[in-house]
Amino acid sequence: MNSAGHPSAVRSRNEFAKALLSLMEKYPYEEITVKQIVLETDLVRKTFYRNFTSKDDVLFYITRRALSDYFSVINSGEGDVLDNIFRFADKNRKFLLLLDKHNMMHVALQCMNEYLPSLRDSSLSSENPFTQLFDGLDSDYLIALNIGAVWNVISLWVHRGMKDDPQHVKETIREYIERIGKIK
């Protein structure tokens, strides 16, 4: 994939991303072709391959872009972690529902497992609530624990159509964490 941050390259990648999402609303993912993605845009096949290697690459681009926004919010230390997680899911509602519709929630999990540990090594701020929690511990396991737990909760919420009240889900999680703290 072309890593240039040139505005025209970014626009092209975003157009292909928008085209793929549009096609995912109408067709099974496995039936979507690069040709269809290109035809949904005003761009040419050569531009597609200058930016992506496959339709899966486009899907990973969309996911990484969303995760980058999420990480920025978490890393800033602003707000409650669970609130931020549900805001991320709500902001990306359409995309997450499409992933669920196509039984592809594992794509986001895979991206998180690859992307978030690399961010920890390069840009974890002191405001990030996990900085103190991870201090002196093997953060690889803790990141895996957090990603797995959070992603399974979000996946269930999305699979239920995102209809359950997020406040109820957050209260359930908080109560459970409190109970864990009381176990000796």
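That was protein one. Protein two is written in the same sequence-then-structure order:
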Amino acid sequence: MAALHIGFIGLGLIGGSIARALRENRSELYMTAYDVNAATLETAVEDGIIDRAAPQIDGAFSDCDYLFLCAPVQKNDANLEAVKKVISPSCTLTDVGSVKTNIHEHIARAGLEAQFIGGHPMAGSERFGYANSKAKLLENAYYILTPTGQAGSRRLEAYRELVQTMGAIPLVMDYRQHDYVTAGISHLPHVIAASLVNLVRDSDSQDGVMKLVAAGGFKDITRIASSSAAMWQQICLTNTENISKLLGSYIDSLSQIKKELDNRQGEALYQLFDSARVYRDSFINASSGPIKRVYSFNIDIDDRPGMLAQVATTLAFNNINIKNIGIVHNREYEEGVLRIEFYDEASQDAAKRLLSTPQFIIHEKRL
């Protein structure tokens, strides 16, 4: 297999994870990266992830087979001007942004449509930067490809194979369809989660009773409100039309629900919850997608000294890393006294095996 030269403009969480996945799964590889943070590049070279740190976007990228644009979207114009001066016609240019219309417009203005295929790895983390990148971030995650009309089928197929090498699942669609789909299943939910959290904040009493007794259901549907405010501001400003259109439809549906509530229309309200239940239960229970699966379970423990420490020590002794742990005070909609959250499914499964003893009762959450 011939050695591929892969370039990265920006080497943060996603760029670093792509580089790690390629390094882990393909032997013949040479990688060059540029990042405004020189310390990041130095660390990546020391890690053996990249082979060369470029001080700027220059001739070091001229023989790349693939060039990933991984810098913040507001840098695209300036970066593309530099890339255009050095990129080879045979190089496939791509990006990793969660909104595609904006970058496709930039590419058209730059005259690079013949070699551009947009990319969106539907994976992420609440942590940022190269230091938190990992190859497994992309494992079994959908990776959407949005080719231009000029890119050609051979270039697209080669990129599909590269994505599969990363361990991800490639899906091909038009960039306009991509932005509408992600507005509905990713961008709008973040807007709703943020607005719901703020509604509770503004409706709460001075002593914060709502916050105190917030149940698991509320926390589950608002978890994504903890995401980066700056990132979601940019997404809303670049996918505005689609988010606004779907938000309008959502507002209309809420207005209809309010009427049904005010008129006590029992059958309509039943259909609201039943149809949502049926459709939600048809979802694939997988970690792919922009709203990541939570790896957790609840467990009953005796209310006596040392029990919490025993659980934590058992997991630590077996090298199982706990992401979060806490007492479930409001158990109206969930069972178990203690909720434990893990970083991945393997850790969750291992913990479940270790704690499946007569001493404990485990309650799995269905997400």
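The chain has a mean pLDDT of 87. Keep this in mind for the problem set.
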